[in-house]
Design a protein that fits this description.
The protein has 27 helices and 21 strands. The protein is α+β, with helices and mostly antiparallel strands.
């Protein structure tokens, strides 16, 4: 029996390397038990018998330690040996090592930089609790020709939905606003939001200290409290801890500060809302404080957003169905007049679609582009490793002869690749850090949280992962290629020329793949460049040198006559400044993210149902200040503002749509106030909302009654000089009003194209890097091929081949590889360019001119890269070549 047990234990011991520590301990204890039984049979006490058994086995602890060392130390020793040997071999080839490391570092650095942006914008947690449960509520109307996510519910509809719905745990409604903030003797315009008591609880965002706005604060008469942003707390109060004991003067009214929000919270930003106009974030939150009458209004108001948080287990589809049912009932409560007010529906949209969805595709596009760059860098490094492995076949053959197996050779080469990859990763992190330093100069300003991009823990883990993955991708092909060739043949023949053929095919394949990837990147970059050129070529309809500034009035100017007097005086004084040729004011400036849309009735038009047009008030000299051309009729005069039947000026698009076969001058238009206006002029179209959208029908009304206005100044003086003069004029007229940011219309155009310029610039840079890497790889392959074929080329020339024939021989091979890469790349780009269709403007995704240019560019650059090795091959001395192996 004892013999059978011992045999079983020894049989299990054959597999001890695959068992866990617990299994080994159990086996060891069984051996101790066997020897203990022998001792008891010999007459020893159980305690003495066990002690003797432990002594015989050398002690449990010693045996277990020996077992652990036997399992781990050989593996560790082997790894350390491979690492030391790899470091020595890489140190002996500094040129190869530096080239391989820098090649991979370029790809890893680009990937790390773009991933840091993706991490900041798309992955890093937003300053809201579980933002995936947040939704926006809209009430679109098919009779109103605007995007459905423009129409937020009226206050009455919102509060009825809040009472009748069961899909939401919290709901909130808010308005965007701007206030004049007095601070340290100066006045500035700050963005704010008027919010209800559920605003912060719906977002699940608590103040850093202090408290949020509560239900008592939202009662009229108790609403003079404010929560401020962390940035405003730092800039205005220098981070003082007694800020909760201070007040905030807004529009001349004192608001007591009750809370300070965390640094990351600035909701709403312009990018958080479908059509927000607060691009740089909100810094003040004050109570909405609606009266009972306001809560009962069903007309379109100032609602900027209606937020809701879905209950656990409730899907957006279910919430959509419930809201649709509720809106069927609420729609009947809306009135009917000349303008349609029925047909209100329901739309529930994901909060995240606006918070990150608008830029998500852009960042994933850039990440895909740098991935291609990384793959090309891996291909180049793999080519270098293949060439180096070919030159080391004799060394590897000796190692095999001394007993090294195939696994050991593969492991050694992968270890060297890993060392190169890790070194490249460290340099890549440095390159990514340099990119992030320059990022503020590239920031288009409309990508949320882009300025928060950093090399945090998540980014560093990503870099380590990419470095390891790159090491495997780079080293696996050379390692497998080397292991398939018998080093014994190399030792027997004394030459590695038979190996060159195997490596040459692998290297040629990598060059073809690199060429195909470059074609894809170049095609995408070319299409984006053409789109950007098309956008920049758009006729904006105004002069880009016009200087603009925004002036917002406060409650002191509550009467129309006060507003008229102020703007007439300010414009009059500004027009008298030296060097100023024209000064005008407009309620909604082009490309300023502000708009007014209303129903119209055009006299004599066949179908006046549901017609809408953009409207804005202007002063008489506005068109001259903006250099907007007059097509027909006349501009406004100073007397037009006081006429009983108001004159109106329309744009070309309006005239083409509503006066297609008749003269628009003298035509009449009725607006929502039921007053008729007579058309006295037609001006050129102006790109108001976006440079990439067709101009919509626009109307201009003469008025000085502007609650807030953009001042436009035409002058030959520098913008800084004009700004200084305008600031002095405003201070002399009313020092209590803030002087807004001074910008030229060219600045606004630049801001409107900033995101497109950002994506086009980065993709073009990546395409250029990819092209450079591919050309370096082609050059390296051709140079390596020439060095390998020195003897063959010498024989050819000795037998009568001309130098031009040798050059053509090398160039023909390069042309073949380029041709295969082009064909493969064109097939891939046919699919890839469809993915960027949404980013294109004025050009198709299969634009022949762009594709032809890419083919010509790659062909010329590729042949130029191959020309140097070809000339070197043609200059070979036949006699010298025949003496070489």
């Amino acid at each position: 029996m004892r013999t059978l047990r011992a045999f079983g234990l020894r049989l299990l011991g054959l597999f001890h390397t695959r068992r866990s520590g617990d299994d080994f301990s159990a086996e060891l204890e069984a051996h101790v038990a066997l020897h203990t039984e022998d001792g008891i049979r010999a007459g020893l006490t159980p305690q003495e018998s066990r002690r003797q058994a432990l002594i015989r086995l050398g002690g449990v602890e010693q045996v277990q330690q020996a077992h652990r060392e036997r399992r781990t130390l050989p593996w560790l020793d082997s790894l350390l040996q491979d690492t030391r040997y790899g470091l020595r071999t890489l140190r002996r080839s500094p040129g190869f090592t530096i080239t391989a490391v820098l090649t991979l570092a370029l790809g890893i650095g680009a990937c790390t930089a773009i991933f840091s942006l993706v991490n900041a914008v798309l992955i890093r947690s937003l300053p809201y609790g579980d933002p995936d449960r947040l939704v926006y509520l809209f009430t679109p109307n098919p009779h109103i020709p605007v995007p459905p996510d423009v129409m937020c519910p009226s206050y009455a509809d919102f509060y009825d939905i809040k009472r009748q719905s069961h899909s939401y745990s919290d709901m909130s409604v808010f308005e965007q606003a701007a206030y004049n903030l007095s601070s340290r003797g100066s006045v500035e315009r700050v963005s704010a939001a008027r919010v209800d008591e559920s605003f912060f609880t719906t977002l699940q965002s608590a103040p850093e200290f202090g408290r949020a706005i509560g239900a008592d604060d939202n009662q009229p008469g108790h609403d003079k409290v404010a929560v401020i942003s962390h940035a405003l707390w730092q800039s205005m109060f220098a981070g003082s801890t007694d800020v909760l004991e201070r007040s905030l003067p807004l529009n001349g009214v004192s608001y007591r500060i009750v809370g300070v929000m965390p640094p990351a919270f600035e909701y709403p930003l312009g990018s958080d809302l479908p059509y927000g106009n607060v691009e740089k974030g909100t810094h003040i939150w004050i109570p909405l404080a609606l009266t009972s009458k306001q809560k009962a209004e069903r007309e379109l108001g100032n609602v900027a957003g209606a937020l809701a948080r879905l209950r656990p287990g409730v899907s957006r589809t279910k919430a959509q169905s419930e809201m649709s049912t509720i809106m069927v009932r609420l729609d009947k409560l809306h009135g009917v007049s000349m303008f349609p007010e029925r047909g209100w529906g329901a739309l529930v949209k994901s909060f995240m679609d606006y918070a990150v969805g608008q830029v998500g595709r852009l960042l994933w596009l850039l990440l895909g582009a740098v991935t291609i760059v990384l793959l090309i860098a891996c291909g180049n490094a793999a080519n270098l490793l293949l060439a180096r492995a070919s030159n080391r076949m004799r060394e590897l053959g000796v190692r095999v002869a001394l007993g090294a197996g195939r696994r050991r050779i593969i492991r050694q080469l992968l270890t060297e690749s890993l060392l190169i990859g890790l070194a490249a990763g460290m340099i890549g992190v440095g390159l990514a850090g340099i990119f992030l330093r320059f990022l503020p100069h590239l920031d288009p300003g409309n990508i949320p949280r882009l300025n928060q991009a950093s090399l945090d823990i998540r980014v560093m883990l990503f870099t380590i992962f990419v470095s390891l993955l790159t090491s495997v991708l780079t080293g696996i092909l050379p390692a497998l290629a080397v292991s398939r060739v018998s080093p014994g043949v190399v030792l027997a023949t004394g030459s590695s020329s038979n190996v060159a053929g195997v490596h040459g095919r692998s290297q040629s394949t990598l060059i073809v793949v690199e060429g195909a990837l470059v074609v894809v990147l170049l095609a995408c970059a070319g299409l984006l460049i053409r789109s950007y050129i098309n956008v920049e070529s758009v006729d904006t309809g105004f002069s880009q040198s016009t200087v603009t500034v925004n002036i917002g009035l406060d409650p002191r100017y509550s009467q129309p006559q006060q507003r008229r007097t102020f703007f007439k005086e300010f414009i009059g004084r500004s027009s008298a400044l030296p060097g100023v040729s024209a000064v005008g004011a407009v309620s909604y400036l082009p490309l300023s993210n502000s708009e007014s849309l209303g129903y119209i009735w055009v006299d004599g038009f066949a179908n006046n149902k549901d017609q809408m047009a953009e409207g804005r008030g202007v002063t008489p000299q506005y068109f001259a200040a903006m250099s907007i051309p007059l097509i027909a009729g006349r501009y406004f005069t100073e007397d037009d503002d006081s006429k009983a039947e108001r004159p109106i000026i329309i744009n070309q698009r309006f005239a083409q749509l509503y006066f297609a076969h008749r003269n628009p001058l003298g035509g009449r238009i009725r607006q929502e106030d039921n007053q008729w206006s007579t058309i006295v002029g037609v001006v050129a179209d102006v790109r108001h909302t976006s440079l990439e959208e067709t101009p919509q029908p626009q109307m201009y009304s003469p008025t000085y009654d502007l609650n807030g206005a953009y001042i436009a100044v035409r002058s030959l003086l520098p913008a800084s000089t004009i700004a200084s003069e305008l600031r002095s004029t405003l201070k002399a007229l009313d020092p209590g009003l803030p002087f807004g940011e001074v910008r030229t219309m060219g600045d606004l155009v630049s801001e409107a194209t900033a995101r497109r310029r950002f994506q086009t610039s980065l993709l073009t840079v990546f395409a250029a890097i990819a092209l450079l890497l591919a050309l370096v790889g082609l050059y390296g392959l051709m140079a390596y091929s020439v060095s390998r074929r020195t003897r063959e080329l010498g024989i050819r020339m000795a037998l009568g081949a001309q130098r031009t024939d040798v050059m053509l021989l090398v160039l023909k091979r390069a042309a073949l590889l380029l041709g295969l890469g082009l064909v493969s790349g064109l097939a891939c780009s046919w699919i890839a360019t469809r993915a960027i269709k949404a980013f294109l403007f004025g050009v198709g995704e299969h634009d022949p001119a762009t594709i032809l240019f890419v083919c010509i560019l790659l062909a010329i650059c590729g042949l130029v890269a191959a020309l140097i090795p070809a000339r070197r091959a043609a200059s070979i001395d036949p006699m010298q070549a025949l003496r070489t192996e």
